[in-house]
Amino acid sequence: METLTLTRPDDWHLHLRDGAAMQAVLPHTVRQFARAIVMPNLRPPVRTVVEAAAYRDRILAAIPAGQEFEPLMTLYLTDNTRPEEILAAKEAEFVKAVKYYPAGATTNSDAGVTEISKCDRVFEAMQQVSMPLLLHGEVTDPGVDMFDREKVFIEKYLIPLREQFPLLRMVLEHVTTSEAVEFVLATDNMAATITPQHLLFNRNSLFLGGLRPHYYCLPILKRETHREALLGAATSGNPKFFLGTDSAPHPRNGKESACGCAGCFSALHAMELYAEAFESVNALDKLEAFASFYGPAFYGLPRNSDRITLGKTTWRIPDELPFGDTELVPLRAGEAIGWKMV
Ligand code: DOR
Ligand code: ZN
Q: Which of 203, 218, 198 lies closest to 273, judged by CA?
């Protein structure tokens, strides 16, 4: 069997949830990744260092016996976050970044920022102590077309923010458009994560023979030209672009609903999905740096020292997985995939 051995990767954007849901999904991530940047959009959100420490302890307690995993914590930025909290986060060390959600942009974002200028003093503190700002880069204005929300966010908010805080280190999370790729390329102190779904699928996947809720995430899948731009960026060998799955589990009935939740669950088979995407453009040689080198470099952390191996063998992605007292449908459930972690 053809195999691909890589330095163990990290996931630089992950939703683990809490309680029984977290217990169900964490082992999948631990199997593939050594570390993950854990999103703070719980209910209530993780807003303070004290809350992040408690959440981190719950994650550590849920790691399967005998396995190793390091959760890298984030704080949820609100209108009321104080600069002192940033200084405390910097001292705490296990807090690696602050997450900005525009209020109402996505799952559990109602406590997010209503007006970006309210955070000026916090951004100053972050710039001062080199605390990265992770952005959900979409406008929430209902008058803006769903497929333009990332592009408009860049023009309306990100360019001015960059000018105001030129040294603030930022990650434009889960980029979905060629405009985002171009902006990241042209901007200092700016990196981006890319999900497997945005590398593999375009917006037609949402409507293939009917409405496909398991392909619905935010920012939403875009047209093919954007997918090609993302795949080009991910496989370019540019360290500004690194792996972040945005694996975001929801119970089946939360997705298959008259008003379905946003989020694709990919923690089960993330590296296999990325391998397929990179292989599609003959760029498997670029996968290790994207998955295992550029993220640690951005966050100033060492690379992992152990390895994982993917084998070229076809298997069927399960229809569903246990998820507390309900079930979870993985991305591309029921279909074949040509790589498998061995
Ligand atoms: O699709 C998404 N799901 N996008 C987000 O920004 C949040 C995430 C979630 O938490 O479910
Ligand atoms: Zn996310």
A: 198
